[in-house]
Amino acid sequence: MIKKLLTVSITLALATSTGFVYAQAKAGVGKEKAASCAGCHGEDGNSAMPGFPKLAGQHQGYLIKQLKAFKSGERNAPMMAPLAMGLDDKSMEEIAAYYASQKISVNPAPTLPADDEDDDDKPAKTDDEKKAELAALIEQGSDLYRNGNIGREVSACVACHGPYAEGNKPAAYPALHSQHADYLIKTLSDFKTGARSNNPENMMHMIAKKMTDEDIKAVSYYISTMK
């Protein structure tokens, strides 16, 4: 009996080790193929520009799905379409494996959105007022993320994206934590207007269209602070 258990344990260990080595090899090849992506998304998938999404730590299945959508035209993106057109399924898997293996960077402490600071019709805000307003904005975003808004039938983000915005790997719902607030605002705005619709049953459009611009800003800023 002991001999049989040892044999099973060794077999499982070898299988796990082989799978890990294979995954690492795929990610290594993906790094080379992702070289042309570094200009916008960063060498390790951590974009330094807030308008471009961080890809580090994102679920492989979700990244593959998006690349295929760019390639087919299901997701309209003039910058991404030409790049995706040159990728076969294997290359997409390898690039996605590389980014999925990276660790997403933590964002610096957020500051008040620029459009809230620049208002010539009002006296300049003090630092304490800005801090209080930012704290209120993030608190509003936290409440919306976790509880939604029953009155306007806005679903809680936590239902699909998890308590720590880690996403749902089997369902291919993306991880959101530590993503750039600017990118999240644009994404939710695109879902709201229908400019982006490549999600199951257009679910994100149905949610985002019920969100106010302030809702979108608040939840985006909150998510950007999650680690």
From TrEMBL:
Q: List the GO terms this entry assigns under cellular component, sorted alphabetically.
A: periplasmic space
Instruction: List keywords of the entry alphabetically.
Output: Electron transport, Heme, Iron, Metal-binding, Periplasm, Signal, Transport
Query: Quick one: signal sequence residues?
Result: 1-23
Q: Which residues bind heme c 1?
A: C37, C40, H41, M80
- The UniProt record gives the binding positions of heme c 2 as C157, C160, H161, M204
Protein name listed in UniProt: Cytochrome c class I
Q: Which organism is it from?
A: Methylomonas methanica (strain DSM 25384 / MC09)
One Pfam family name from the record?
A: Cytochrom_C
